[in-house]
Amino acid sequence: MKIGIMSDTHGSLTAFQKVLDAFGPCDFILHAGDVLYHGPRNPLPDGYNPRELAEAINRLEVPFIAAAGNCDAPIDQVLICVPIQSPYALFCTNKFRVLVNHGHEKSEEELLGLSAKWGINILVTGHTHVKRLEKKNGIIMVNPGSCALPKDGIPSAAVMDEREIKLINIENKNVIETSLLV
């Protein structure tokens, strides 16, 4: 099973298409929030087209599971036919429990505490626009960074299978960092 993980598209159809291309075929796509709107503090990303992005999401042939971010609004649900879950999206495989949360309302310690309580193996967050992959208190923490407005200069996403999670540069498809899951 291959799972694509992204965050902070902020309405960029261009970034979304680059992520899908970098993922290749996936069984599921997880999105950690800030799907359509760029937010008042962010610049317009290249390829900003929230309506077309919503239509591209609706045309996906794989399940798209999203947690709401601070720039997501209830009106977005009028355009996107899959639920944007708030504040958490839970995804389970035969081997892992994955909690997706944008990361803007609770501290890392609170999210790790909830993850431990709920038997979560992998915590996916977004919000910071900075990629991160580390293990803390037995829980793999992954922030795929932002594919549209990266604050660390590299537009990125992540790919996960039963063995590992990889952070990838969506421009050249190079692996930035890998963490084994087994």
TrEMBL record:
This is Phosphoesterase. InterPro entries: Calcineurin-like_PHP_lpxH, Metallo-depent_PP-like, MetalloPDE_YfcE-like, MPP_YfcE, Phosphodiesterase_MJ0936/Vps29. Residues 1-162 form the Calcineurin-like phosphoesterase domain. Keywords: Metal-binding. It is an enzyme of class 3 (hydrolase). It holds the Pfam family Metallophos_2. Its cofactor is a divalent metal cation. Its EC number is 3.1.4.-. GO terms for molecular function: hydrolase activity; metal ion binding. Belongs to the metallophosphoesterase superfamily. YfcE family. It comes from the Bacteria.
